User: Which sequence fits this backbone?
């Protein structure tokens, strides 16, 4: 780390630089973009989950006023664009040919002079279908009598892939010989990131220059440019992707959607800019969902509660196409973090993936590639073990934590955890919530027949993909980048390959650069999202921005400082070896009063560079992290349950997070508040549901509920700081921890409240209706 | 979705059955009919207005009338499309003479896909039941408004 400055910028609660424009409604989103001669596109979508396409009649639509073009799968087939590759190595139909495989699948695109005319035109396209039986249940999908969904594949099965990690035999042997084995089936239901801004783009092909500019609400603009070039055949330098302000992503805006390809095709065909912005229903029913993991965990343990082995099986429902956005080597993402914070001597995990007639996916919703599923599973099952053994859940966790002395720690499933002090976070959480007192209160309330529960979750994450030798998406290595330009007046333009969607990069990255260069945060402007100007990067998801681009920021700044030191020596009229960087300035060793600032140096870089040194002061750094980072924490949730209505009231929620060095505590707390609120929604309210015919029943916000200020509990946050030893400033990434760690805390609290009834598990969402039914089945009434 | 009901019609069974197999007559009984086009003696296409919750607009219905297994039965199949939705209805009516009248015991099985199912959601079943009931109610009224045929 750099020397401590008189005023440290890192660690300050600096208000977000981006907020004034967002608060005043001055953000610029895709739908705010209006270009001359722009036209609009709407999509015709399948009402059936599974059907043969018999005919598409476009005449009536083409005759509608304002309609300019109707594009079908057959049109795209001629251009070789009817299918596109997914990030997971599968392929996906852009517009349906032959048959449709999920409800709301894209069937045709209608382009018109106005948005309204495009929608009217889409309604006038007549499509004849022959409905086929739909497969909705992933287990049924694997049965021999199940219809084959993907007739286009060589493998004539609905099974997609099998993945496993760990030691099968050793784990089985440990389970056979253990004192105690608990086994729990756990479903992490299908949910949706549901960003408030849905997906959309403006494709602008300029026939004069031959260049395509795609304005798109994207978490990974460079990856989109490269993939678009591969799919379309347009040379990459003739494509410019601009991701303007993004109104929430949460993983939903990592993928390339059929609508984007159709808008590009339409713009190429018409030579006019084409805008496509989906509706809320289109977003919820056709774009990247998350989870849909059907899991079983078995923990073998001694009577003393020490864990011996973990065996996990999971069935992953990917819908019609395997369109998840996982790194190539990891089809089940980083699910093998499922040993969590615990020192399992051995473990084995396996995942099978299947097709169903549901929307394709699934993406890591505010999650580093299946970490949420893994964390929920282990934290839920540890409570089952605690119940079996009659050991307090906090005590059981403490007994099994990976001890601080074991770091860097090699887990049974092959990860090397960088740093951690799990007991410290647990202790702080228990102390903050007043755990002992709460347990006493719970005993008293139970005697009075009241239902109060306390739930814990001591999660470990794995974020910051990733080391190049392990991580790539579609072959592109997962590094990230920063380019710094120091202007003559000492002001800095900092550009990154990441793309924030509310994470506060414009502030945190400015803090990192300011700290390293001895400047004020106001001297640094952060720019992201334009592939013509930003250095190549893989984008923002998987809590990777601070671990990768944040590191690149520090290291690019140190490169600037290396050159600046030569200029400083020139200005101070001494040798380079006599100059040191201290207190945010260049000082002559032994004579600290003789010093120059970065501003002095910047001016000299352009007006008075030393002889033989090229002018200017810039640097670029592409950072390949040596390892992932492993943020962790303990969450404690306290609930009271109304026996009459099944209503669960979250009385307290204490979140202790450890994300290493904290750059801006206010932003970290904001991230945690947001993620906890999402976790609360997942635990109690949300599920993307289908009926037996494959109709999606959660296509709007009256069915798919988002927590508002009315439902959301008050969050209490605290932190411990265990820096990452390999990150230049010791930071780990925090955006996803609360979404990863909280569902187990909520559910554990409810199950704890109901445990006197013999309840050991409830699948999410834990709705009032579910709790009420459980209470009634035990004869309990309000 | 499965519905059933019955109508007591003051007409003979043969008259009722003949009505149920006549496209132009059954077609007129569809609620909120906008356009009717008879294709042949057993098929017609109708355009109807529908409104389920926030989903409102026009549906195209392709209807087939079938005689059924014996003289006491008539069947109606409907294939619907539009509004980003698909609709399949299979219904049959059992005709039993009772005191010079005809008891029409009908049942219908409907499946709905697309926007009507997803956005219409909870309102759909009630609305669909109403439409089928209205149709058989209209068939009764139309028949009874016609002069009675010769006693058989």
Assistant:
């Amino acid at each position: 780390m750099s020397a401590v400055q008189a005023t440290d910028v890192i660690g300050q609660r600096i208000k977000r630089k981006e907020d004034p424009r967002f608060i005043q409604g001055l953000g610029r989103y895709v739908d705010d973009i209006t270009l001359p001669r722009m036209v609009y596109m709407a999509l015709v979508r399948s009402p059936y989950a599974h059907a043969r396409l018999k005919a598409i009649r476009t005449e009536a639509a083409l005759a509608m006023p304002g309609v300019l073009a109707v594009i079908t799968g057959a049109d795209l087939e001629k251009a070789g664009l009817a299918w596109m590759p997914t990030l997971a190595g599968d392929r996906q139909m852009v517009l349906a040919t032959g048959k449709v495989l999920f409800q709301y699948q894209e069937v045709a695109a209608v382009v018109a002079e106005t948005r309204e005319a495009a929608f009217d035109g889409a309604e006038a396209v007549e499509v004849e279908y022959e409905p086929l039986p739909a497969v909705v249940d992933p287990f049924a999908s694997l049965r021999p009598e199940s219809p084959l969904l993907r007739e286009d594949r060589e493998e004539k099965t609905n099974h997609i892939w099998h993945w496993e990690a760990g030691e099968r035999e050793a784990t089985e042997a440990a389970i056979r010989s253990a004192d105690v084995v608990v086994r729990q089936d756990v479903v992490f239901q299908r949910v949706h990131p549901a960003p408030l801004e849905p997906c959309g783009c403006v494709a602008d092909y300029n026939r004069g220059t031959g260049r395509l500019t795609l304005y798109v609400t994207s978490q990974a603009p460079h990856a989109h440019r490269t993939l678009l070039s591969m799919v379309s055949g347009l040379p990459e330098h003739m494509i410019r992707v601009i991701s303007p302000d993004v109104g929430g992503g949460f993983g939903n805006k990592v993928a390339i959607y059929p609508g984007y390809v159709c808008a590009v095709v339409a713009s190429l065909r018409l030579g006019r800019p084409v805008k496509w912005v989906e509706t809320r229903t289109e977003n919820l029913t056709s774009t990247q969902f998350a989870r849909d993991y059907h899991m079983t965990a078995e923990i073998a343990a001694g009577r003393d509660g020490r864990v011996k082995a973990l065996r996990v099986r999971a069935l992953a429902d990917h819908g019609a196409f395997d369109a998840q956005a996982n790194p190539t080597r990891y089809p089940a993402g980083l699910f093998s973090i499922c040993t969590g914070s615990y020192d399992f001597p051995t473990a084995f995990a396996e995942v099978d993936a299947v097709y169903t007639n549901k929307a394709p996916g699934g993406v890591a919703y505010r999650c580093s590639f299946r970490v949420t599923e893994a964390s929920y599973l282990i934290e839920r099952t540890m409570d089952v073990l605690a119940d079996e053994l009659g050991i307090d859940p906090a005590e059981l966790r403490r007994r099994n934590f990976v001890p601080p002395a074991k770091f860097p720690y090699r887990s049974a499933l092959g990860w090397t955890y960088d740093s951690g002090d799990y007991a410290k976070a647990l202790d702080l959480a228990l102390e903050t919530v007043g755990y002992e007192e709460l347990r006493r209160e719970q005993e008293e309330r139970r005697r009075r027949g009241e239902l109060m529960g306390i739930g814990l979750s001591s999660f470990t994450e794995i974020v910051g993909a990733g080391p190049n030798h392990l991580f790539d998406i579609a072959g592109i290595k997962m590094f990230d980048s920063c380019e710094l330009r120091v202007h003559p007046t000492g002001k800095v333009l900092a550009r990154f390959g990441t793309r924030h969607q509310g994470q506060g990069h414009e502030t945190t990255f400015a803090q990192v650069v300011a700290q390293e260069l001895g400047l004020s945060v106001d001297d640094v402007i952060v720019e992201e999202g334009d592939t013509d100007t930003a250095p190549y990067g893989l984008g923002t998801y998987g809590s990777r921005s601070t671990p990768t681009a944040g590191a690149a920021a520090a290291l690019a700044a140190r490169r600037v400082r290396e050159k600046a030191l030569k200029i400083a020596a020139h200005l101070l009229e001494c040798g380079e070896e006599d100059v040191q960087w201290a207190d945010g300035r260049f000082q002559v060793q032994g004579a600290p009063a003789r010093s120059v600032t970065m501003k002095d140096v910047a001016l000299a870089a352009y007006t008075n560079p030393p002889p033989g040194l090229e002018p200017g002061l810039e640097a670029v750094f592409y950072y390949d992290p040596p390892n992932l980072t492993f943020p962790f924490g303990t969450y404690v949730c306290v609930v009271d349950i109304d026996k009459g209505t099944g209503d669960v009231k979250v009385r307290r929620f204490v979140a202790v997070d450890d994300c290493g060095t904290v750059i801006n505590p206010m932003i970290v707390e904001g991230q945690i508040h947001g993620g906890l609120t999402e976790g609360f929604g997942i635990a109690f309210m949300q599920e993307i549901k289908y009926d037996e015919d494959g109709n999606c029943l959660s296509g709007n916000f009256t069915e798919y509920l988002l927590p508002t200020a009315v439902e959301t509990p008050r969050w209490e946050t605290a932190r411990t700081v265990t820096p990452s030893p390999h990150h230049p400033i010791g930071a780990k990434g925090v955006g996803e921890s609360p979404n990863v760690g909280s569902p187990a805390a909520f559910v554990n609290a409810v199950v704890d409240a109901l445990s006197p009834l013999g309840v050991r598990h409830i699948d999410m969402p834990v709705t009032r209706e579910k709790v009420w039914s459980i209470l009634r089945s035990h004869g309990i009434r309000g | 979705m499965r519905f059933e009901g019955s109508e007591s019609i003051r007409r003979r069974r043969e008259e009722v059955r003949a009505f149920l197999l006549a496209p132009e007559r059954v077609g007129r009984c569809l609620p909120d009919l906008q356009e009717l086009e008879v294709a042949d003696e057993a098929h017609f296409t109708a355009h109807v207005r529908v409104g389920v919750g926030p989903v409102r607009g026009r549906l195209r219905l392709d209807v087939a009338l079938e005689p059924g297994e014996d003289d006491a039965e008539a069947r109606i199949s409907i294939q619907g499309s539009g509004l980003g939705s698909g609709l399949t209805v299979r219904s049959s009516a059992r005709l039993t003479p009772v005191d010079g009248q005809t008891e029409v015991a009908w049942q219908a099985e409907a499946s709905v896909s697309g926007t009507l199912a997803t956005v219409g959601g909870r309102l759909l079943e009630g609305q669909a039941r109403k439409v089928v009931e209205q149709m058989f109610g209209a068939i009764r009224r139309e028949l009874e408004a016609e002069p009675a045929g010769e006693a058989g």
In short: Chain B touches chain A at residues 57, 60, 81-86, 88, 111-119, 121 (CB under 8 Å). Chain B has one domain: 2-145. The longest strand of chain B covers residues 85-98. The radius of gyration of chain B is 15 Å.
